[in-house]
Structure formats: C-alpha cells, structure tokens
C-alpha cells in the first residue's frame, strides 16, 4: 500500500501541518530563513506527524485532534528535519530527497546554524505546550540524537560491533523520536500510564524496524530510488544490521572493511560480497520481528479504524524493501 493512500484520511490535517511548518520557521535573517524553508519545501513522507495525528484520534472520544496535538506533530517534524541537516553534514551527503542538501546549497556553517535554529524553535514551542511531562520526554529526544551520533562516530569501521550495539544506537538515532512522540501524544490526551507506555513501545519497535529497513535499502537501492547517495553507511564506516550479519557469516569481510574503503570500486566489491551472504535476509527478519511486536501491542488493546492504520503502517515499512 502506498503511503498517500494509507494516510488519505489525514490529507487535510497534513496540509494544515505543512502550512504551519512554514510559519514555525519564520526567521528574521533572510539566509537563515531561506535555509530552513529549503528543508520544508522538499516534501518528505511526514510519517512521524501522521502517527501522532492518528494516535490523537484514537485517544480522543470525539475522534478529533486537539490544537496541542497539531503543535506536537509540527514540533516532531521540525526536530526530525533539524536532525537530518546535521546528519547530512556529518555523513557528507550532497543530496536529500533528490535535491541538494542545505550545506551543499549554502555552506556548512549555515547548515549547522539552520539545524541549531530548528532545534531551538522546536524547544520553544515544546515549552509553550505548558505540559512539563511532555517537555521532559521530547527534550530527551534531542539529547538522544547527540548520544547516537557520538556512539556511531566512535565505532566507525568497527567490525566487532554487535547487533545489540546497533539496536541501541538505532534507538538513539531514530526510534527515540517516534517512541517519545507517541507517548507525548497519549500524555496530551490524558491517557493512563499503561496506555502511554503501550504507545511508547509501539513507536520504539516501529522506529527500529524503519531504521533497519532504511539500512537495507542503503545497500540494495540505487541513488535515484533513495533520494540520497547509495552505500553512504559503508562509505562512512557505519556498520548496519545487514553488514553486521554479513561479517558474522563471511569472515573475509573483516579485512576489507577494516581497510576503510573510500573509492567506488572497493565499496561495490564489499557490497557484492554482502549480497552473497544471508545478511540482508537476516536484517529483514529482524525488522519483521520489531514490526510484529508493534502490531501486537496495538491489536491487543485498540480495535478502532484508526488503530488499523497503525497496523498497516507496519506493513508499509516492510513493503519498502520488497
């Protein structure tokens, strides 16, 4: 199922969110404004805010979305976008979603400031929700992002990284935002602690599966399909699930990866070796395990139509690989 069809019932809500994002980035300096606006005019799947809006409907007796939920969805997308700006600088990506990244269009200094600006803006809007519990949980996400990047940087080309290490790093870099946003949505809806925790775990496992599939696609897809350079994980020494499983199966990969390949020929040689192992298949199985946990959480407690959308989202994430 295509994402647009899956989220068809949210079309008006997403249009409203896109309009508000343009207002959120209002900046006095024209260069900073241009850099921030550049990010929000490149599309994006809007998966994170869509999940928030669906959970808002599930947890509201009138099946509607409160102003605070809309604002949380906007904050979440702003935080996500800010993290992409910094990721692109660290990974030296020239394109994102098929167009030039901020640091390629402007320069690295402007890109760093644009990312910082968006983090600061999101923090200000979080504070204005006037809910201390939500402030705490969403603020922790920004800390987790930094933790994830540092962990990744310290393990570049480390062939001894374990799947457990990878999952922990993936939580900090990706799943924490989805998990914490899901829980914050339930908090704003005044749900009980058990329900808050259910949505947190749903977001956590969905986020981990999303990251694993994304890492598989970095190996199996072409640049025009990804919207960013292919093989960027290996180029930057970031060992992901399919690479870790492949190294476990074919010990020869150790020496090739430890040589820190930086030219296209060497990287493609390693990628072909990875494809000859069961690394990609095992990584997909791992993603499916996390999807099944996420689906089970929703199926056990929620029976409404909007809950079915959360379940179908799990299918969509796995279908990205197929």
From TrEMBL:
Entry keywords, A to Z: Chloroplast, Isoprene biosynthesis, Magnesium, Metal-binding, Plastid, Transferase
GO molecular function: metal ion binding; prenyltransferase activity
Cofactors: Mg(2+)
Domain of life: Eukaryota
GO BP term, example: isoprenoid biosynthetic process
Family recorded in the similarity comment: Belongs to the FPP/GGPP synthase family.
Protein's name in the database: Prenyl transferase
Record organism: Taenioma perpusillum
């Amino acid at each position: 199922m295509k994402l647009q069809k899956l989220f068809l019932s949210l079309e008006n809500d997403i249009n409203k969110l896109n309009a508000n994002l343009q207002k959120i980035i209002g900046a006095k300096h024209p260069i900073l404004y241009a850099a921030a606006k550049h990010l929000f005019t490149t599309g994006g799947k809007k998966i994170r805010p869509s999940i928030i809006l669906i959970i808002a409907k599930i947890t509201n007796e009138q099946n509607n979305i409160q102003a605070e939920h809309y604002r949380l969805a906007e904050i979440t997308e702003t935080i996500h976008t800010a993290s992409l700006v910094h990721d692109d600088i660290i990974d030296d990506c020239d394109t994102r979603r098929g167009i030039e990244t901020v640091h390629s269009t402007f320069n690295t200094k402007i890109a760093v400031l644009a990312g910082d600006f968006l983090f600061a803006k999101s923090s200000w809007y979080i504070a204005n929700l006037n809910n201390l519990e939500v402030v705490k949980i969403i603020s922790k996400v920004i800390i987790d992002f930094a933790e994830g990047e540092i962990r990744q940087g310290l393990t570049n080309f480390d062939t001894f990284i374990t799947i457990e290490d990878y999952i922990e790093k993936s939580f900090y870099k990706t799943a924490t935002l989805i998990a914490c946003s899901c829980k914050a949505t339930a908090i704003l809806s005044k749900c009980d602690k058990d329900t808050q925790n259910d949505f947190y775990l749903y977001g956590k496992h969905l986020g981990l599966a999303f990251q694993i599939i994304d890492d598989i696609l970095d190996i199996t897809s072409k640049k025009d399909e990804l919207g960013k350079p292919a093989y960027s994980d290996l180029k930057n020494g970031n060992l992901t699930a399919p690479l870790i499983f492949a190294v476990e199966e074919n010990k020869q990969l150790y020496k090739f990866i430890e040589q820190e390949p930086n030219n296209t020929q060497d990287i493609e040689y390693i990628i072909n070796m990875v494809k000859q192992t069961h690394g990609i298949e095992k990584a997909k199985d791992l993603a499916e395990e996390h999807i099944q946990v996420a689906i089970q959480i929703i199926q056990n407690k929620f029976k409404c139509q909007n809950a079915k959308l959360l379940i179908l989202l799990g299918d969509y994430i796995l279908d990205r690989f197929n």
